[in-house]
């Protein structure tokens, strides 16, 4: 039997990835992380993938809890993910790519085990 918090952790990972990509799409954050400005196409691509992950995160919440409770869960998870991205960018921006890679591996394994 799988614990009930496993899908929520996977959705938290998706939300973290989405907000981290939104942050990297911005000039200042990209420059803090990589010491160079992003190209225009990189910024657009990061924003596109961020929106796709955000939509997938909302749909995963809705499929797990239904639209009524799923939207409330989504708002709470997005708030927590935003705080994690803010803390990462404030204290160690160079670790954001490591968080993105670790988050994608963890998220995909959690969501696959949860069946979402």
For the record, give the distance between the C-alpha atoms at the N and C termini, rounded to a whole number: 16 Å
Instruction: Outline the low-pLDDT stretches.
Output: none
On the 0-100 scale, what is the average pLDDT?
Answer: 88
Order of helices and strands: HHHH
Tell me how many strands there are: 0
Task: Describe what you observe in this structure.
By secondary structure, this protein is an all-alpha fold. Helix content is 84%, strand content 0%. The longest helix has 52 residues, at 40-91. The model has no long low-confidence stretch (mean pLDDT 88).
List the helices and strands and how they pair.
Elements: H1 6-24, H2 27-34, H3 40-91, H4 96-114
Summarize the entry for a quick read.
By secondary structure, the protein is mainly α. Helix content is 84%, strand content 0%.
List keywords for this structure.
84% helix; mainly alpha; 0% strand; 4 helices; 116 residues
């Amino acid at each position: 039997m799988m614990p009930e918090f496993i899908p929520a952790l996977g959705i938290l990972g998706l939300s973290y990835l989405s907000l981290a990509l939104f942050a990297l799409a911005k000039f200042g954050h990209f420059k803090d992380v990589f010491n160079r400005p992003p190209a225009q196409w990189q910024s657009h691509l990061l924003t596109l993938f961020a929106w796709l992950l955000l939509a997938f995160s909302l749909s995963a919440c809705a499929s797990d809890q239904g639209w009524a409770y799923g939207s409330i869960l989504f708002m709470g998870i997005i708030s927590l993910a935003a705080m994690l991205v803010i803390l990462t960018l404030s204290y160690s921006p160079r670790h954001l790519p490591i968080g993105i890679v670790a988050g994608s591996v963890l998220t995909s394994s959690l969501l696959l085990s949860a069946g979402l």
